[in-house]
Every structure is written in C-alpha cells, then in structure tokens.
Amino acid sequence: MYKYMVLSSVRLKLSVGVHLDIKAWFNGNIVNWDQVKVSPLSHGFSRGSSIFEVIGIVPTPRGTAYVCLEDHIKRFFRSSELTGIKLSVTEEDLYSALIELARVNNVHKGIAKLFAYYSGVEFETVPHNPVVDVAMFCFDLEHLGIRDQDLASFSSTGISAFRKVPNECIPSQVKVSGLYVIAYMSMMDALTRGLNDVIMLDIKGNIAEGPTSNVFFVKQQSVETPTLRNILPGITRKMVIEIAGDLGLDVIERDIRPEEIPGYNEAFFTGTLEFVRPISEIDGRKLGNSCPGPVTRLIIQKINDIMHGTMNNKYIKWFSFV
User: Fold this and answer.
1) What would be the CATH architecture of the domain defined by 155-308?
2) In whole angstroms, how far apart are CA 185 and each of 178, 191, 213?
3) pLDDT digit string (tens) for 68-82?
C-alpha cells in the first residue's frame, strides 16, 4: 500500500505545517518552493490542462543520478506538442535546471516533478492569454519521511469499474493533469474495496495499465504486457522490457483479457518510484505460490544490480549524473 501511504503521509506533513527547506525552479530562477503559486481560476488548475513529468533520482556507485532523464524530458515536450502548450524553454534548459536543482536540494534518492501550465485567470475553454509557466520541484525521499521499507510492499489489486480514456479522445502518450481524474476515481474505488492498487481496462475490455503504472504478467519464462495502442508508453516499462530480454525471457506485447489472469503465475507493476512492484493477488485470486515470483524476483535483482552494483556500460545510457 506504500504508494498511497506515501502520498497520504506527504499530504499530512504539509497540512500540519512541517517546513520543507527546499528550492524550486520557476521560469528560469531558483526560488523557495512555496513561492510557486497558481490561482484556482487559472486554466491549468480549473481546466486540468497542465502537463507534467515525474522523474526518479537514485544513488549509484558512480554518484547520484536521474533515471532516463532525457527520455522524460522528450516525453514532456511531446505532451507540450500534443496539447498545444508552447514552451519557452528548450530540452537543454530543462536538463541543466534539473541537474542543478538536485544539487541545490542535496537529493540522493528521490523524485523530481516538473509542470507547464497556463497560469493566468481564464474563463474560456481556450486561454486568451496563453502565457505558460514552467515549475520544477526536487525532493529527497528522506525529506518526505519516506523510508526504503515503504517502497517494498506488494500490491493487492483488482479490475477497475472505470475504463481508460480511449486514444481517440485523448492521446495516451500525453501526461496532462485532467486525464488522471480516471486514475483518481479508479483508485478511490479500489480503496473502498480494501485494495491498494487497481488495473484499468481499455474501452474494448482489454487490460490497459494501473493508475500511474504499467502492468506485466508472467507465465513460466514468458513476460507479457499490453501493447502501446492505448496505454502510456512508460519509460520504466521500456527499461524492464530490455532487462527481461537480456535475462533470456520471452517478452510479448499483446492484447490481454482479464479472463486470462488465472493462467498467469506472476504479475507486477512498473513505475518511476517503485521500478517493479509485485502483485500478490488480483480480485482476491492469488498468483502463484509466492510473491514476488521467481521471474519477478529475477528482474528486481537485475535492476538492483544495475542501480547499486558495478554498472554495465550497456545500461549507463539510462543515467544522468548529478
């Protein structure tokens, strides 16, 4: 249940006034994080049109590093292109700013969040004053009271009653705030059912993804995951597919129906913060004899070796050192 425990604990700490002595990057300047403000009447807030990215920061033997920073920045610009939000910064600007922000905040293991949004007060569907603000925040997990053991639990999940918005309505590769209302509703419903995560289906009834994660299923030595047709092209998903291939596992991307779940031995989510999170059960049905199962455990161990062991030159491409 860590993801939502973590988010709840963060909300609690901020609500009781705990002072976070961290800096933010706002339109080209390093400022105190609480100086970045936005009106509820802004287009980004009231219309849900802001775009965003979340990027992991990890300790490695070669020093603190962002994971797949360039890929995240490129996806941020892709979201900008798809939503028509024109950015006044370049990819190089954001790269340099994020490296600086991690240094300023002395982050060793944490996350960065970046946003672009129409900040002016607007009452129309399309903003009359299309001024775009860009804000970035960088947190060490320790600052938020998040411990390693909070990131090591299993997922008890189920199939959501809410369907993923089809690609024909909003492109699945865009990370825009309004699109995540479905994820919020799905997760709220899951919590009322005693679950700590949820799997959403697409409009055709195929398995799509989790609220903020991609999902994989394991059958013997085969690892299967939904196609990119109607899911976010997760960056950790791409990493895991490469790692699984390097481990000699068969990787299959295909449409997966929920009625196929009993035929799998293992399942797991992938995401920015947790990398791989084993799924222990789906709608009360246990998967296999242990959690994590042997294949999931093998992938987790490989990721740990990449992050914390002697870094193979094959995987150095994933890291941008602070």
Assistant:
1) Alpha-Beta Barrel (3.20)
2) 12, 10, 15
3) 999 999 999 999 999
